[in-house]
Structures are given as C-alpha cells and as structure tokens.
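Take a look at the protein record below with the fold in mind.
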Amino acid sequence: MARKGRPEPPMGVLRRLDAGARAGFPALSTGLLIALAAVPVGVPGLAAALALPPVFFWSVFRPAAMPAPAVFGLGLLLDLVSFAPLGIGVLTLLVAHGVAMRLRDWVAKQSFLLVWVVFCAFAAAAAALAFLLHALLMLQVPPRMPAILQAGMAAGIYPLVGWALARLHMAMTRAEEGA
C-alpha cells in the first residue's frame, strides 16, 4: 500500500536551468564541435568525421538527449559548414541515429572495444552513404579518397571522443541521481 506524503515542491529556477542544460548539452556540444571543425584546415570530411561519434554515442547511451529533430539540425549545420549539397549530412546523420537507436539495447551492454568496432562499421557505412548521395545529387562519381578519409578519421577519433563522452555521461547520471 503506497503512503501518501507531502507533494514534492516545484522545481526551482536553478534546478530547471540545470536540467535544461543537461538535456541540451549533447546536441549543443556536438553543434559546437561541428562549427569548430569547419575551420579551414584542408582536411576533407573533418566536420562529418567529428559529427558522427557524438551522434552515435548519445543515440546509444542517452537517446532522450539526442532526439531526431536535434540530429536533423546537426545534419543541416553539417551541410551548411561543409558546403555539401543540402540533405546529405541530414540524411546520413538521421540514418546513423536511427540504426544506433535500433541497436542500442545490444550495443550499450558491450565492452568499449566492441562498441568501437560497431562504430567503425557505422563510420564506413555513413561515409559510403554520403558518397552515394553525393554521386546521385551531382550526377557524377566524386573522388573516393575524401569518403575513405572521413571514415578513417571518424573511426580513429571515436576512442578519444567516446572516452570523454562516457565520463560526461557518468557525471550527468550522478548529478541526476543526486537531484
């Protein structure tokens, strides 16, 4: 039999700001990472390679913090900063997000090494999808090397990004449990 107690007091302004910041952090930080990667350094596909790891990580480990509309916005930002035809980054990130959400129950239980291997497959598939979409939209076959570099950079960056995001995820979980 459940006991009735006093109702919980409404959340204060600071607690609401904290909850909002925690909820928006994954998408906002990914957007900032995409914007920083857009600095012209002469590396093709850097912004896309840096966008995929956080979208994959948050879609698997904290899906409520990376909803599809946020992924759509990140893909649009990616298309705008990389001067890609509109829709390539959007569709690529949305497909990666959807597949990650579909596999999240299995992936979330695996070791970091196996998650990395799964992400490497995601990176290769995302680069291949972007390459295919680019070829279809431009009606010509683009160079393959940027897509290969993009997949390799994303796979190589994931251990560092995944480690940092895992620490942030644990800190956010501890903060939520303590609240």
In short: The radius of gyration is 18 Å. The chain has six helices and no strands. The chain has a mean pLDDT of 91.
